[in-house]
Write a structure and sequence with these properties.
Blueprint (H helix, E strand, L loop, with lengths): L3 H13 L16 E6 L3 E7 L5 E8 L3 E2 L2 E2 L2 H19 L5 E6 L6 H12 L3 E7 H8 L5 E6 L4 E7 L2 E8 L3 H12 L3 H9 L4 H23 L7 E4 L8 H9 L3 E2 L7 H22 L1
Parallel strand pairs: 1-6, 6-7, 8-11, 11-12
Antiparallel strand pairs: 1-2, 2-3, 4-5, 8-9, 9-10
Helix pairs in contact: 2-3, 4-9, 5-6, 5-7, 7-8
The structure holds adenosine-5'-triphosphate (ATP) and magnesium ion.
Magnesium ion binds next to loops.
């Protein structure tokens, strides 16, 4: 199966998140590489060892980003710092080398702010990449499109020979599901968010959120027009809603692949990128 390796990677991370165990010793790593994803809905930190195996991770809700851009610098530093401390306490050693990612096209200013946040939290920044490139690392994508539907945005990127050749970002995501449910059911946004993630209720909610899914599918369809894309790979927490991948596939008429735990895909890819960048910097130093 196409996403077998990606699913194994994400599953290994899930087992380790929050200090979880999978039988491997927690403190045996020679090197630690960290990825921090500062998203609209969640801030996630992932730690990998020298072999790229997940060691530990932290996830916290936070509203420090709007439509892909950092809007609350100080709170972002606090959240990143607090995840770093928790992880360091559990691992009994400092985390130093880090990477992060931003929506494509915002690398310049938003990327700089993100790097500053990481430095303020006490990290050494190896690099800031774009989000779809991070997701593509996890799913081993060389050719195809990545569609990352997070809390606030839908990011679409087309890859050719492993390089991003086109990308776009639209402010439609999980928050819009919440708005539709809150309005339709006469409940608060936080109640809507809870119900949306309750597996027992999702089937009943599908007709209400279907228009938002169709909007995401239409956005994707419009952006992919003119590009030769034969497979779409999903990432981002919103893609976990049952029926989402099937609706996308029906709309686009090409295979749409959904990894397990899509919410963890981009954060994991960022940590993988940190490891790649740090290892290549080390190799250069040795020469
Ligand atoms: N099981 C689920 N079903 C539907 N939606 C879910 C599920 N789990 C999480 N979500 C939604 O996924 C979103 C968070 O996803 P993710 O962490 O990928 O976003 P983010 O990276 O913080 O945001 P962005 O990339 O837009 O800045 C939230 O809107 C949340 O409600
Ligand atoms: Mg995201």
């Amino acid at each position: 199966m196409a996403l077998e390796k990606a699913n194994e990677r994400v599953k290994a991370l899930e087992l380790r998140m929050g200090g979880g165990h999978d039988g491997r010793p927690a403190n045996g790593a020679k090197q630690l590489y960290t990825g921090v994803d500062i998203g609209t809905a969640n801030v996630v930190t992932v730690v990998l060892d020298e072999d790229g195996k997940p060691v530990d991770g932290e996830i916290m809700p936070g509203s420090v980003v709007r439509e892909g851009m950092v809007v609350d610098y100080f709170r972002a530093v606090e959240l990143v710092e607090s995840q770093k401390q928790k992880l360091e306490e559990r691992l009994g050693r400092p985390l130093t080398r880090v990477a992060s990612a931003v929506p494509p096209g915002t690398e310049q200013d938003n990327g700089k702010i993100t790097a500053n946040i990481l430095e303020a939290a006490g990290y050494e920044v190896q690099g800031i990449i774009d989000e779809p490139t991070a997701a593509a690392l996890v799913m081993d994508i060389k050719d195809g499109a990545v569609v990352d539907v997070g809390g606030g945005t839908t990011g679409i990127s087309v890859l050719k020979n492993g390089k991003v050749v086109f990308s776009a970002d639209q402010a439609t995501g999980g928050a819009h599901f919440d708005l539709v449910l809150a309005g339709g059911l006469g409940i608060s946004i936080s109640e809507a968010e809870e119900r949306k993630r309750d597996v027992k209720q999702q089937k009943r909610l599908l007709p209400m959120v279907r228009p938002v899914m169709e909007k995401v599918a239409t956005i994707t369809q419009n952006y992919l027009r003119g590009h030769k894309v034969d497979t779409v790979y999903l990432a981002g927490g919103t893609c976990a809603f049952p029926g989402f991948a099937a609706l996308m596939e029906q709309f686009l008429g090409i295979p749409v692949l959904l990894p397990q735990r899509p919410l963890l895909v981009t954060p994991l890819g960022i940590a993988m990128a940190c490891r790649n960048m740090a290892m290549s910097a080390d190799r250069k130093k040795e020469r």
